[in-house]
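Blinded run. Sample ID left blank on purpose so nobody reads anything into the name before looking at the predicted structure. Input follows.
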Amino acid sequence: MSSSDTKNSNKEEKTVILLKKTCPYCDKSYQSNQKAVNHIATTHKKKVERLFSGNRNFGVYNQMNVQKYKRLGYTIVVQFGCVSCKEAFVMKKELEKHCDLKHVVTSQPEIGYMKYFD
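Blinded prediction complete.
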């Protein structure tokens, strides 16, 4: 392995993905998946499945983690994590579309009642 290969390998190892915990439908942040599911149900009238804690391989996007990884020389990639599965998205609009297509179990618009199934 040449020295340039080593530099590239080291650079790749110095990348970390941090997930923003925000609602897919608005800018509300949350601390847990359950709080997100509750918020989506009460505010947006959509019932989504919940991912249980500890099922992710990413760190959480917060000031402490950003400072820690910057200090260690990591390149930080920020993504939006789904509350229902392990998927993560670069753009929030992609997360919203994903949730609507894959995880909305029921939706209660003001008039009527609609069910969504996979």
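Unblinding after everyone has recorded impressions. Strands lie at 15-20, 46-48, 59-60, 75-81, 88-89, 104-107, 114-115.
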